[in-house]
Each structure stands twice: as structure tokens, then as C-alpha cells.
Amino acid sequence: QVQLVESGGGLVQAGGSLRLSCAASGSIFSINTMYWYRQAPGKQRELVATISRRGDTNYASSVKGRFTISRDNAKNTVYLQMNSLKPEDTADYYCKAEVVTVINGNIVVWGQGTLVTVSS
Prior knowledge:
Elements: E1 2-7, E2 10-13, E3 18-26, E4 28-39, E5 46-51, E6 57-59, E7 67-72, E8 77-82, E9 91-101, E10 106-110, E11 114-119
Parallel strand pairs: 2-11
Antiparallel strand pairs: 1-3, 3-8, 4-5, 4-9, 5-6, 7-8, 9-10, 9-11
């Protein structure tokens, strides 16, 4: 079984920064693409950023230039550095990973989410 655990959310003032982490654990052989999504109250979940195993990244236009996704393959961990935060960045942030497991082959795993609140 594989689990993703996010951390780093919290309350921050507009213009501030937060760094989210998402650590994978369990019967992992390797992890391919890792993702950050977010879901604001009353809105659909949206893709924020992706990072391939070799480090290729993509960002939603709304966060490009402010957020940076990175990963540490040795620690099976993905990060999201969020700078210049805006009130509209307030949401639950979720990580997702495409995991190659030791026994069950390829699976997709979601974390439980971490809340980011940006005050104006």
C-alpha cells in the first residue's frame, strides 16, 4: 500500500510565502509524474503544477512565475514553493503521484490535502 502525506499548509497574509511538502511511503519501486492540485470552496479541483521524474515542470497560468514545483526522488517527496500569495490562492491543496509499486504495478495515489488560507 502507498500513502501520500501533505504538510506545510496554513494561514498567510497576501504577498507571503508557504512551502508545501508531500511525502510518499509504502511499497514503492519508483514514482513517475507528481502533481499538485487545488480546490477552492465551491469550485472544481484544478491542476496547479506537474513534475516528471527527470524534473520537467508545467504550471497553470494562474501560478506561473509565483509557484515552483520540485522533487527529491531519494525521499519520494514533492514540494510546492508558493510565493507572492494572493487571496485567490486560498484552497485545499492535494498532491497526486503515479507510482510504480513493488507488487501491484502502476497505481495513482492522492494525498489527503492541506489547507492554504491567504488573507487580504
